[in-house]
């Protein structure tokens, strides 16, 4: 059995009908606009954006677009995503309804800020032992 593993988001999107490709491209552009420094990749066999760690993933299915903003993205927007089928880290946007691009934009902004804050905390934790050594006076 031959598996069809895509190597890029472009290749992934090309595997779908034109109307779905259009939705996927618009989601991609929305993410790119809100996270211009993010890197595109394929992870878990689906389009992924990485910036200071995994930012989010998205995927097309026969009747919906799966949007994966990790658990924190869903928790922060519970009210806005309540009308969609969702799980711990996933949201399903039905293809027979308008895709909520403004909501996607807000979630991407949130995830960029969240990942940046986590990175800052990691960096400050790594620096603190060095800073403590430097602040001790030399006693001879």
Automatic annotation (TrEMBL):
Residues 118-140 are annotated as: Disordered. Pfam families: DUF1801. Gene3D superfamilies: 3.90.1150.200. This is DUF1801 domain-containing protein. Residues 21-112 form the YdhG-like domain. Residues 119-140 have a biased composition (Basic residues). It comes from Leptospira soteropolitanensis. InterPro entries: YdhG-like.
